[in-house]
Amino acid sequence: MRFIDGRYFLTSTQGGNIQMRSATTVEGLKTAQAKVLFDDTTAGRNVDFWAPEFWFLDGTWYIYYAVAGNQDGDTHHLHVLRGGTDPNDPSAGPYTYVNSLIPSNFDQWAVDGSVLQIDNQRYLIFSGLESSSPWTQCTYIVRMTSQTSITGDAVQISCPNLSWEIIGTPVQEGPEAITINGVTHIVYSASHCSTDDYALGMLTLTNDADPMVAASWTKSPNPLFTRNDAAGVYGPGHHFMFQKGDNFYFAYHGKAAPGLGCGNSRTTRVQPFSISGSNPVFPAAVATGVPVAEPVA
User: Fold this and answer.
1) Could you tell me if 158 and 175 are in contact, meaning their C-beta atoms sit under 8 angstroms apart?
2) Phi, psi values for residue 164, rounded to 5°
3) Which residues of the chain does CATH 2.115.10.20 include?
4) Other C-beta atoms within 10 Å of 150: how many?
5) Are 176 and 241 spatial neighbours (Cβ–Cβ below 8 Å)?
6) What is the separation of C-alpha 78 from the centre of its chain, rounded to a whole number of angstroms?
7) 86 partner at 20 to 30 Å CA-CA among 8, 151, 230, 286?
């Protein structure tokens, strides 16, 4: 989700395609017409489109996403689309398929690709399968050579090992980078999305350290954003952070009752978050019936 030139844009998937909604208010996104930006019948990349992110890089829109093929949900890999050049309208397109993004050492299940830029170097960060027994997802990074290509090996920079990261099964996914006052963080989702304990955690890059070295990253010991039983919010996570003016907001999905799993019972919510020094500070999750003020500049 992004705020661009007076409008909000939100991507979503319905299994077989990538869609985008746009409105002048967050509330308006609820009823906005969804526009299909891309679908694909190509064998090997035509099932379960997941987690599309849209980025305006060097004058062109790109969408990074994961998709599986051959009716096998365990075959997800990362891919990239190229779109239009209107900086104020990521929905204009058209979007065309460009490339798969498979590191030389990691031709296996990978999802949730996102872009991290440090100085003039871009990196692709993603969640990848470390082990299938038990199912374990870790956070990886690989260098980008252009908006649509990567080079070299992916490096595992963090794996779930804290009690709040391993509920259901050990998972780190949905990594999103943010740099605040010169300090770079990766905020990620932890534990399995089917559980009520899905939550947000954070890695912090040591200043001037190489992001391709695992030891350069420090994991926060406690989650940043968690379930709120008193408000009836369960399994909140898989966020995207954005700005409107000087204010910070995040979109995420959550569930309104316990035990609802990872399916269509999840709804998209938006709340503000704040900055303290060089760190993001996330609020308590609020119930769906509690009004949240529209973002302000």
Assistant:
1) no
2) -85, -5
3) 111-297
4) 24
5) yes
6) 13
7) 151
Quick check: helix, strand or coil at residue 123? strand
> Has residue 82 got a pLDDT over 90?
yes
For residue 275, the model assigns a pLDDT of 97
Surface-to-core class of residue 254, CB atoms within 10 Å of its CB (0-12 exposed, 13-18 middle, 19+ buried): buried
Poorest-confidence range of 36-45, 108-117, 125-134, 288-297?
288-297
pLDDT per residue as tens digits for the range 231-243: 999 999 999 999 9
Strands (E), 34-182: 35-39, 47-57, 60-69, 72-82, 96-100, 110-118, 121-132, 135-146, 149-158, 172-180
Q: Determine how many CB atoms are found less than 10 A away from the CB of residue 135.
A: 15
Structure tokens at 228: 């709120």
pLDDT tens by residue, 168-225: 999 999 999 999 999 999 999 999 999 999 999 999 999 999 999 999 999 999 999 9
SS3 163: helix
Confidence of residue 13 (pLDDT cuts 50, 70, 90): confident
| Pairing of the two strands 47-57 and 247-255 | unpaired
DSSP-assigned beta bridge partners for residue 69: 72
**Which amino acid, one-letter code, is at 208?**
D
Please give the angle made by the CA atoms of 145, 127 and 158, to the nearest 5 degrees.
95
Cα–Cα dist 89/218, whole Å: 37
| Fold of the domain built from segment(s) 111-297 | Tachylectin-2; Chain A (2.115.10)
- Token pair of 179, please? 């740099």
Alpha carbons 66 and 54: distance in angstroms, whole number: 13
Residue 6: Cβ-neighbour burial (10 angstroms; 0-12, 13-18, 19+): exposed
pTM: 0.96
